[in-house]
Amino acid sequence: MATKTTITDLVCKNAKAADKRYEIADATRQGFRLSVQPSGAKSLILRYTHAGEYRNMTLAPYTPGGNALKIALAAYAKAQDALAAGTDPKAALRPKADPDAALTTHIANFKRLKVATLRASTQDYVKRSLDRLDTKFSGRELRAVKKSELVKWLDEIADAHGVSAAISHWKVIRCFFRWVESREDDFANPAAALAAPGKDREGDRTLSDAELRAVWNAALKVGGATGRFVRLMILTGCRRHEITHLARSEIVGNEIVIPKTRYKTHRELRLPITAAMRRVLDECPKEGPFAINGAHALGDHSGMKEKIDEHAKIEAWRFHDLRHSVETGMARIGISPFIADAITHPGGSMRGSMRRYQHHDFTAEKRAALERWSEHIEAITSGAKIKAAA
Asked: Which residues pair with 250 in a beta bridge?
């Protein structure tokens, strides 16, 4: 039997979770109760009889510091009016579909007002995560999405695509729900205390020559746009989106030129094209605006990674590790770390007065380094003896 007392906000706040779900019945309002779950979740409910059947309905979920009790009591009053009129309160109080309350509507607004201000490459992966969120909770209202559901969804992503993929989605949905929280009244953010689905590595994984060979050979077996993408990442040390969005217009003579509007640090990146790079680029479709995949940019990085993993069979890694492996590998074969960093981070190594006074573009030095790196990759992937560092 439920404990009876006058239900106040203090009573709701102080109600403690127990091993089993229990209820506190209001002493003066018939059927009005507080339900407390073993998890600590609380809700204000109504138990009533209609058409000879004993029924119940949730009036409002309870969260400390909100106005749940006020909302629940207003709903309780409407429910009593419905019962007096011989109508089922559930039918009378069921809200009509409100498109402005839909999760889909809020996601569309977020894309239009926030995501559209981001870099094009950032927009792509953020939109992919938002689309997956929208698909997962299709037809749901924003306020109906629960933290436990988000946790389960992220766990599913981690199981299917790895922890890194789940963390990427986690970052996007937290940003989305914070944005909504900043605009909505009395919104209980389900992602406010959402823990990361795992540990995000700080990019400390570098691949050995044997592992690079395995990934390179896997790219050859997979072929197509995925194979070209992976081999260019190994040869250039570029970021994923710099290759997946590589446009034909960015192949300028003997250089890859990525404009500052598309580069992470807002600097222009100029990479001399080696013979090995040219062979990969020559495999690209001759028609269409994009050099790597013909008619459109590549986007499904998880899918491409799965294809490579079917053949590579190496310890857990991610595409961004190739970038770290290039710079580390260059140092290992005797290329100056300063020049290697100039390839992967234009202007990144310059500090203090050097950043202000150093205007040499290091084109010749970068070309020599990239040619040497290409020779090294060709040597280790063809089975030839690896050249010793100078």
From this structure: none
Rounded mean pLDDT, 59-66: 82
Q: Is 215 left (phi over 0), alpha (psi -120 to 50) or beta?
A: alpha
Q: Are residues 269 and 370 in the same domain?
A: yes
CA distance 378 to 212: 11
Expressed as residue numbers, the domain containing 280 is: 209-382
Is pLDDT above 90 for 362?
no
Question: Tokens standing for 337?
Answer: 């770390």
Dihedrals phi, psi of 326, to nearest 5 degrees? -65, -50
- Residues 312 and 319: their CA atoms lie apart, in Å, by 13
Sign of CA dihedral 154, 155, 156, 162: positive
pLDDT in tens, 188-211: 999 999 998 877 655 568 999 999
Burial class (CB in 10 A: 0-12, 13-18, 19+), 109: middle
Domain count, the chain: 3
Range among 155-159, 172-176, 279-283 rated most confident: 172-176
- Strand (E) positions, 264-356? 269-272
Q: Taking 60 as the threshold, does the pLDDT of residue 293 lie above it?
A: no
Q: Transcribe 359-388 into DSSP letters.
A: ----HHHHHHHHHHHHHHHHHHHHTPPPPP
**301 and 377 housed in the same domain:** yes
287/106: higher pLDDT: 106
142 and 250 part of one domain: no
Helix or strand holding residue 9 (H, E): helix 9-14
| DSSP state, residue 117 | G
